[in-house]
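Retro notes - structure team

What went well: the batch runner handled both jobs without manual restarts.
What didn't: labels got mixed up in the shared folder, which is why I'm recording both outputs here explicitly, each with its sequence directly above its tokens.

Job 1
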Amino acid sequence: MATSPKLDARIPDGPLESKWTKYRSTVPLVNPANKRNLEIIVVGTGLAGASAASTLAEMGYKVKAFCFQDSARRAHSIAAQGGINAAKNYQNDGDSVYRLFYDTIKGGDYRAREANVYRLAEVSGNIIDQCVAAGVPFAREYGGLLSNRSFGGTQVQRTFYAAGQTGQQLLLGAYSGLQRQVGAGNVDMYTRHEMLDVVIIDGKCRGIIARNLITGEVERHFGHAVLLCSGGYGNVFYLSTNAMGSNVTAAWKAHRKGAFFGNPCYTQIHPTCIPVSGDHQSKLTLMSESLRNDGRIWVPKKQNDTRPANQIPEDERDYYLERRYPAFGNLVPRDIASRAAKERCDAGFGVGSSKMAVYLDYASAITRYGTAEAHKNNMHHPSADQIIEMGKAVVKEKYGNLFDMYKQITGEDPYEVPMRIYPAVHYTMGGLWVDYNLMTTVPGLYALGEANFSDHGANRLGASALMQGLADGYFVIPYTIGAYLASEIRTKAIPTDHPAFVAAEKEVTDRIQKLVSIRGTKSPEAFHKELGKIMWEKCGMARNDQGLKEAIKEIQALRKEFWTNVKVMGDIEEFNPELDKANRVADFLELGELMCLDALNRNESCGGHFREEYQTEEGEAKRDDDNYMYVAAWEYKGDSDWELHKEELVYENIKIAQRSYK
């Protein structure tokens, strides 16, 4: 299997351990005077976007940052709860850069690019130092050292955290750096703006078309380079843990203009989500993976057991993850934990009114922590009530806001009764294909963070999303962008009345005009719900040949109906969330088809891509390394037409094996 001639990953030569250091030291530089004449557009202001925009501005580039929220601080990165990984080995438990690299490759089921993953592991320690310097209040041990906890897919404690709001605190750190550059005049901030197309001139990305979501005005913006930091596409499933505004539009417009889309079928189902409660829901709420660090997951041993959890004796409980995967127990990777929960529920052991949930129980953790506290306080014969009281206090300190959130949503107190959880769509490992420099197949167009495909393979380990976003923004793009911009210093700012800008704007306005003029009978929301149902049932936690073929036909029919029967209320030149939604759903309808096509093409199971035809006798994912050890990079050729390009994955530093967490 050879890599497509259209794909050049630009991976530096030399040993894995020195690739990044050597490359960083030899990559072309742009001198300070020239940086002042170069303009960079950053789309999205989450962790990747905010860190990139602030760092590039501090380096001297002129930066324009765009976000569709009313403040950069509302980016979806704020929702991350559990933590951020780094190979600091603070626990002295055997962690290292190589072990983080190995865990990430193995966790992704051997479908990630070695060079990118090693670089991620290598810079991870710097991220923590950077964030501490920015004032992020990470949890600390009694002696003052930063605290770590365990996450899935690893046997070391390497996850740094700030209670259950790590994403929020990290984003506030990056946001403060961004606002400092806004205040200094180095970043022009465009809030309530949505990117609706990229502008290509002479084969290079030279700007974007954006819509002011308050006034409806369509604007043209020039940039010597454009960075897409616009997050993932999990909302193609309608119900997901993503913010309701999260969408694929920026990445999809880039895809239609020539940027290849990598591994679109690799979507992650998170095992610890609050179960769906009814058709009224528009999003789902996640309970952090950090809860698996101390909680125990179980179902009753008896099918359709309707007794309250606290009345089911210990010997009548099936701690199925501990039973099936003794080495990792409740800390197996997300894809494995999710499928195991689905298998138990499908077999009739589910709990709750829907029977589509399992228990996440904190009783033993509360007792364990309470006993430790009693020893610390020199209490020789504490009562059971005292132990539980002290244990609850420790759990509250570690996970309090998560427990409060659960109680607010479900009306049940997780200090008293086990939480009920079930898998839900959470993260997308696929995204725009990028090379080692994070550049897409369109020169001058980059993708960072969840918007690209680069670092996680077929399954992301918990606490690695924040790591990748900040690595890309703080420590990778500031170096690699020089490789491109060093040759652009003679390019003057291109006026936005250039024919390419005019044509791109016309494309955007024509599409908006068409959406508003259809005046059908169904809302964009109704179409989104229908698409989500198809995707979840036929391209969700499990897929098969027949279901995927059906899904492709159903999505094509739904898209045809959308463009003849969608009803968009309101006008164009005003604040119109219905129009924004219609625009995004139209893109999801195209993406959904490509995801099913990619899943149909990959005749194997790996990580989050589980084809029912390809599994072991124990129900584990069965890879086909001989035929599918490649990145699937899809080139857009027209309506329902894509060409597949393959980037061969070569492993020189890791022994490939079937994943085992037993």
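Job 2
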Amino acid sequence: MTFNEELKALTQLREAQRGQWDNIDAASAARMRVQNRFHTGLDIARYTAAIMREDMAAYDADTANYTQSLGCWHGFIGQQKLISIKKHFGSTRRRYLYLSGWMVAALRSEFGPLPDQSMHEKTSVPALIEELYTFLRQADTWELNHLFRALDEAKAAGDDSKIKDITAQIDNHETHVVPIIADIDAGFGNAEATYLLAKKMIEAGACCIQLENQVSDEKQCGHQDGKVTVPHEDFIAKINAVRYAFLELGVDDGVIVARTDSLGAGLTQKIAVTQEPGDLGDQYNSFLDGDEISSAEDINNGDVVIKQNGKLVKVKRLASGLYQFKQGTGEDRVILDCITSLQNGADLLWIETEKPHVGQIASMVNRIREAVPNAKLVYNNSPSFNWTLNFRQQVFDAWQAEGKDVSQYERADLMNARYDETELGQLADEWTRNFQRDSSREAGIFHHLITLPTYHTAALSTDNLAKGYFGDEGMLAYVAGVQRREIREGIATVKHQDMAGSNIGDDHKEFFHGDAALKAGGKDNTMNQFG
């Protein structure tokens, strides 16, 4: 509803109370309604799920319509990201938030900093989703509050043209609330545990849940060693659990991202159940490493024997009880994982790779699309990659294959700053700049995310400030490096009282107390120094 429609409805409601609500100003109540568009997390989940589905269809029509996100570990960081996007680009279209399990573990656990191994409290995941949306909704209220204040000034000045313009801005306001792709890790337990946690995440506002095919009690970061996958039947059960959670809560178009870690995982916790040759369990077991045996005498105490491709094979089992996959089978296992997930309820794929290489990703996606033509990826533009070195080496290898002289470059040392201004260094930067566009066009990537960029930006900016402030620069380090830049670059946080809600609170006090309101934003508020 528009502001005037809300005003009309609330005026009628107030009048129907026969004087009981005479202290209530219908315009103020209408303003509060407009400034609080979403009442529950489920309202947000349903709204953002529709956005994601529209964006997925737009990508299928034109791969230039890929989407992006940055991982945010606090509501304020997510809020400032979306405020920045609106300021610089005028719209939040195709820009999301990513909730990283890595950053929850490292920054939000009551145990303190933890590695990305599902040891943190699982309740901290839905708590962060709720926090992110609380801050995004507050950004709506903050932005609209400024518009309503401007509207009041225009009315006081009798400026009809300005009144019309501001009213249109209010009625057409674009919310800061965008989809969150939320990391549920490996589900934090069995399928029932996955379902219960998924419900909490959806109730907090998540329209999209990312689930990985690792063993939940052995889960590792996708860029660490020691990853252990589960048979497909176990993973499908958890996909089903997430879908049931979406359906129970009425988010019928909720999105499930099925992540496979098989490219870098060499182990499995158990042998898959198989009923007949060639079924899904048999295909999974066909990748297990082992030694062919010819008689019972070849079997020792504790050995496990399976039938593999018509032969008896003693499976290689580690001291940990885990089973080992054959070397070089990672990509084939990825393909089987992805096709199986899409055919059993997943909407999007996530293939965890060891480097950002368009050709590598495309080779896998093309194989998947032979079975599922509209398969598309969520891709981790990971800070775990050395992007500079990777792309310089890719350029080096391409030039070498073309027969170009690369003798002035040392491949293993290409990270060296002396290569920054060289032809190779500049071309590598261009490849990096175009990576998202190129891979979305050539490798089926619908969504690009950086999992933990704000972890790194917080550390870098804090280091820069600490180096100067505690050194010779003193207060100038803050003034020149932070505040002056905030003022000149139009960063809203320079008026931190306003950003935290001081003006919103003042307006509410006036609604509640009228002329008796004791407000904080008067002439002696030092925030006025910033204009």
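One thing worth noting from job 2: DSSP finds 19 helices and 14 strands in the chain.
We'll revisit the folder naming next retro.
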